[in-house]
Specification:
Elements lengths: L4 E3 H7 L9 E9 L7 E9 L2 E7 L8 E4 L4 E3 L2 E6 L33 H4 L4 H9 L2 E6 L6 E9 L5 H4 E11 L12 H27 L11 H10 L5 E5 L2 H14 L3 E5 L7 H5 L5 E4 L14 H8 L23 H18 L1
Parallel strand pairs: 1-6, 2-5, 2-6, 7-8, 10-11, 11-12, 12-13
Antiparallel strand pairs: 2-3, 3-4, 8-9, 9-10
Helix pairs in contact: 5-6
């Protein structure tokens, strides 16, 4: 049976989410397990402005601190995993082209939408929780990794108990991934995915405006039909809930930024493995906050952002060429593999058709 324990990260991540939360906490009475050194019986942990200020026995309690009684519990420091699909099935990419017939059927995945609530569908097993805690993670932000609109993520701690007892914040954010659907199912291309995201956002804008007009004066107006997905996006359009875009490459981060600017929404970049190429934008005040991979290089590159490129971004000029990571040695078009040249010419023809 799992021992009862209190997770320091619960306080660290919950405090900024509460507008009237105090800036100082004192966790008292519990058995404290420091990162190094022996455990401290009847220990005290002081947290100020989201940072651990002091740990020890018989520490004086600051007069402005909110006291949390942890008597009979264990207090551990822990990490926060800000993007995980733990508790959800994983999608197996389907093969395309010749030999695409699958020998094994693809797993059945639940349908996701902006109205999908992660905390209602997540299924955390004891083995999942133990394995995650073994890596030092004690709090997670969870959402499925499949679908385009992955739904509304939730923040949970990994202590003992049922899922409802683990919830710290629900919902935490709206999750969006640039995941094409299986072949021959719209949208099965990156261009289609972005078009689907933009159209859904436009529908949410119109729906929110129609509901506001109706709620203000219902007499003489037809009540807008209920739409759970568009209703779930209403807090996003009001900038009350951020959107987390899962984007690793520079091109994908710029696409996410373009969508966020177009609809004036708050957004976060999750992944951001090429964040060093996007550093100038990330440093700007009130811009995207990146949950970046710590292994990315700290080198700063010249930001891509000419007027023509920004015009293409706004117009939805998405090409497969944008997904390729820049190589160290640039190659001319003549030196590209024949298959890549054909794909590039096909995208140019498709974009030309859209412009007509």
């Amino acid at each position: 049976m799992l021992r009862r324990f209190l997770i320091v990260t619960l306080v660290l991540c919950a405090a900024p989410l509460l507008a009237d939360a105090p800036g100082v906490y004192a966790i008292t009475g519990g058995t404290v397990h420091p990162v190094s050194g022996p455990e401290i019986a009847n220990g005290v942990v002081i947290i100020r402005d989201g940072l651990i200020e002091a740990v020890g026995a018989n520490l004086p309690i600051p007069p402005d601190a909110a006291t949390i009684d942890a008597k009979g519990q264990h207090v551990y420091p822990g990490l926060i995993d800000a993007q995980t699909s733990l508790g959800f099935p994983s999608a197996t990419p389907q093969r395309r082209g010749r030999g695409a017939s699958a020998r094994t059927p693809a797993p059945t995945l639940p349908d996701t939408s902006p109205a999908f609530l992660a905390v209602r569908e997540i299924k955390l097993t004891d083995d999942d929780v133990e394995a995650k805690r073994a890596t030092g993670v004690t709090t997670i932000l969870a959402a499925p990794a499949f679908g385009i609109f992955n739904g509304q993520s939730g923040i949970l701690n990994l202590g003992a108990g049922e899922t409802a007892e683990r919830v710290v914040r629900d919902p935490a954010a709206q999750q969006i991934s640039f995941n094409p659907r299986p072949a021959w199912t719209f949208p099965d291309s990156l261009m289609g995915v972005i078009a689907d995201i933009r159209q859904t956002m436009l529908d949410a804008q119109q729906y929110s405006a129609a509901r506001a007009i109706y709620d203000k004066n219902p007499a003489g107006y037809k009540r807008p039909p209920d739409d759970a997905s568009l209703q779930a996006l209403a807090p996003v359009m009001r900038r009350e809930v951020p959107v987390v875009f899962v984007a690793d490459s520079e091109a994908m981060m710029r696409r996410a930024e373009a969508i966020a600017k177009e609809f004036n929404i708050r957004y976060v970049l999750s992944g951001a493995r090429q964040g060093y190429r996007f550093a100038d934008e990330l440093r700007r005040p009130r811009r995207a906050a990146a949950a970046a991979d710590s292994r990315t290089s700290a080198r700063t590159h010249h930001a891509l952002g000419s007027a023509e490129e920004r015009r293409h971004i706004r117009a939805g000029h998405w090409s497969r060429q944008d997904e390729r990571l820049p190589s160290r040695n640039s190659q001319s078009d003549r030196e590209r593999p024949l298959r890549r040249r054909r794909a590039a010419r096909g995208d140019d023809r498709a974009c030309a058709h859209l412009r007509r």
